[in-house]
Amino acid sequence: MAKVKQKSALGTINKILFIIFIVLLVATILYVSLSSAKMPPKEKGEFVDEPKIEEFQAGTYGGVKFDSVDDVVNYYVECFNYNKTLTATYDENGEKKTYYKLLGDENLVVENLLVEGQSNATINKLVPGILKGLFKGAPKGLPPAANRDPVYDIRDDGPNGTKLDQKESHLTAEDVLACNVVDNKDGTISITIQPKAQLLSMADQDPQGRFFNVLGDISSTVESINVLSFSEGTIEENFVVNYAGGTGKIKVDTKTKEIVEADYEMDVHIDVQHANVAVIKNKSASLDIVYTNHFPASDEFLKESRGITRK
Can you give the pTM of this predicted structure? Predict the structure, then answer.
């Protein structure tokens, strides 16, 4: 039987970017059509990268001693790397497959959509329907992850066109803004990590890119949208993508170092300035993206998304 070619991680990222752009373009056009009077844009506040989780406290949790943030990150990396060596057998539409033992789901939500600094109730009601029609989540390994199959867990958008193997974490203590550990009193501990903020995060090249499934370079995707241009400035100046505030909470069985549950939330804020959309000129828009992964994925998600059942 011929092998089915796996979708590249870059193709998936471009799909997500197109979804974001479509939402922005539709919102801009609708806003101009629905607005009877121009409202003054809301003033932007100064951005501050600040912890959203409790501060780390040195101590022994679940029998594991953590004296520093370095200890927490090193333990997380060790558990991450070990769990990406674990596989399981699945049935995918009648075919036997070997995927990661721990598979998660994915979901994408758009929030705080503003055009010219203003929110519009009609547009906000339409956005969920647009997303539902465009974004279909798929099972994935622990992020950063390009695939559910270890063989294909490789991104093709690394530095200078290199490929990035995602089976090992390269996260360091320098990447972490805040973290903490909780003893669950049942043989497991929960580690929560918040990486430092990053503008235009690149896979495996910065704090966000070493922890989440980031979007990477957006320039080529923006340039490929024929109806979108800018009245002044460059793409990099007018399309600002800020990753900040996202966290990952990982529950680990300390006896085996298996990750038994995990929730990752990547928060991204996008600001667009001086955008020309068809005949609409020099508009601004912004939105927040909340991209989440939950592990383990439910049987229902595996079945409905890709026809996968656990053996």
Answer: 0.88
